[in-house]
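subagent[fold] <- orchestrator: predict structure for attached chain, return tokens only, no commentary.
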Amino acid sequence: MLRILPCGRALLPAIWCCLMSACGSSADGGAEPAPVWPQYERPASFDGIAKVGGLKIVLRDGIKLSASVLLPADADGEAAQGPFPVILTQTGYNKSVPLLRTSNEYFVRRGYAHVSVDVRGTGLSEGEWEAFSETEQADYREVLDWVAGQPWSDGRIGTWGASFAAITQLFTAAHRHPAHKAVFAIVPMGDAYRDIVFTGGQINAGFIPLWMGLVTALGLIPAEPDPAALQVLPQHLLSALTNFQVPVITRSLLGLGDQNHDGPFWRTRSPLEVADRIRTPTFVVGGLNDIFQRGEPLLYEAIRRNTEARLLIGPWMHVAGSSGEGLPADGVPDLDHIALMWFDRHLLGIDSDADAIPEVTQYVYGADRYVTSGGWPHPDARAQRWYLGDGGLLTREMPRADGGAVTVLQQPLNGLCSTSTAQWTAGVIGAVPLPCQRDNRYNELLEATYTTAPMVQDMYIDGPIQADLWISTTAGDAGVLVRVTDVSPDGVSREITNGILTASLRAVDETRSRYLDGEMIQPWHPFTADSRLEVGRGNPVRVPVEVFPTSLLIRAGHRLRITVGASDFPHGLPPLPDLVDQAVGLLTIHSDAERPSSVVLPVVPASDIAAPSR
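subagent[fold] -> orchestrator:
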């Protein structure tokens, strides 16, 4: 259910939130007992805050980064004698903009210094912005060197922040700097290509232009009386127009160069590529409908192999997840208290009970509360294959030899008003909730639907989902969109998660795909030019679609629905060459014994919700 959210403390879309009342996904809390979480608080030890601005970090190539620091102070604002452990936030959203939370006084009043830095080419920092480039990543280590050497720093550094400032933390941790002791990454990206920019091989026309435009716009706000702003702001605009933002968007939309395929450009900008290097204890916060919904649990999974890690996933879109909207709830503290617990343990060595934080805590739609487990994917999950049957049924039984087929119109604009659109614009489009954002039946008019009978008992789904669809098209190519919805007894079809794939990019690298009980449940598509496979007009082909992970309880009396369509705009817009091949045509979903379209679900015993797992 969508509802209006109060303005949160998000780093990425806070301007949108405050100006447009961005909304996120939420649900009313359940009445069942809360999961067991440690409760921790340490009273403030300082009454005031002292801010030191105008700091410059001179990098190896002479570029100067703009920094500021908040220091613990007395009630009159006189800075206390240090040195202090330091919390570091590196952002691309202009640390000087008052509405953006790039520092945290809650930590400072408890004895931490908090440093905020504009990354290269953003805010008041010099240089050209190229979004997590190798050059920018190298800067992160130099920033740590600088922070560790300041007189107010005791050499112990934790990193904190949401969105952009969460992504910088993971690249920073990959340097394994000896001063870096803890990471608290709120709604970070894992895989730049697959998570957000080119999901399923289709560009996210909703979020990417807005995001790059936001970085550019915030970089032009002279929010601090710094003479350097008169020099760097025009540089930022020129760079956006000629070097990075506009050229990248243009090339991607037009399918020019190789940026519409996966490769070095996107691998360099994907924290999952360096996650195996991280040895810094890491706390990851994610959202069930966040723009980084796919990557957040994968980051946790990769990082925990080599160091202490925890995962918290709430019922959030990006804005709400950035602030942990709705917490505390069900015994789970708010994000500031959790972060203090994490930093006190790993920077100060205080027995804050952080070791007792459950490995994984997820909100479960349908149960409408937080549930803990011993890992991700859920250790008790078992694969179940459900078939798209004749007559629109979703059943465990294989289709008949003479099973049916359903044909839908291929056009690029379906999904324009949907939960998906609200999600993939970080919640911005959902600012004014419309019926079509709360009920997928409007979109289903142009989609094929397959629905179970009413559940006789609760069904708990937790993890990634794979749809194995047999399709044919009258066009040269096709987009294949899969939605998972929960249909209540009154007929409302609530979209829970989705996946999209360009059919010609259906090739799978089996060595990098995930399996459960021998069934592939999370396909890994190379998305390279060389991996393209011909579709052919009228030729049935099997298309394995990755449906992003979720946590859902289908209540007894409710029904599970899978819908299949040809588009999910603006979440997915094919680059121009692909759009020409797939924009207009007829997409047929086959479902017979020879071509059995199906979905593989990770099903967990519903009893695990009542009693937290291992």
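orchestrator: received. Logging for downstream: The mean pLDDT is 89. The CA atoms of residues 301 and 370 lie 19 Å apart.
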